[in-house]
Amino acid sequence: MEFIDYAYYKEVYCGTLSQEEFNKVYPKACAYFMGATRGRVEESDTSICFALCELCDIFYEERTRYSIKSESCDGYSVTYADTQNTYSLAWDVLTTYLETSGYLYGGSSI
Question: Other CB atoms closer than 10 Å to residue 14's CB: what's the count?
């Protein structure tokens, strides 16, 4: 299910990613969102759309800034950043936008 498109991201959310950058991270943002909500979201609203837009920004930062933490030239040493921070930020976004929605509840809906 597609909740947002690039036009929404750019015009409503006022995002800064190019369309190519957005297209690269949107599938991951959507997969994270659907996993966290256990696929329960069927209709979109402003909170859901903004959460997805912000997730796109977070996962873009992960792709570009957080992948390499440090690099050395002489002994060729590369340290990769811990992605735990990325997922912690992503979860914070979801709880900010969806905390009272019931979508993040892990128990049975019966």
Answer: 8
- Structural domain total, the chain: 1
What are the pLDDT digits (tens) for 53-90? 999 999 998 877 655 556 666 767 766 666 668 899 99
**Domain assignment present for 107:** no
Long-range contacts formed by 17-23: CB under 8 A, 24+ apart: 17/56, 17/57, 17/60, 21/60, 22/56, 22/60
- Cβ atoms within 10 A of the Cβ of 53, count? 24
Q: Does any domain span residue 104?
A: no
Q: Which domain holds residue 42?
A: 6-98
pTM for the whole structure? 0.79
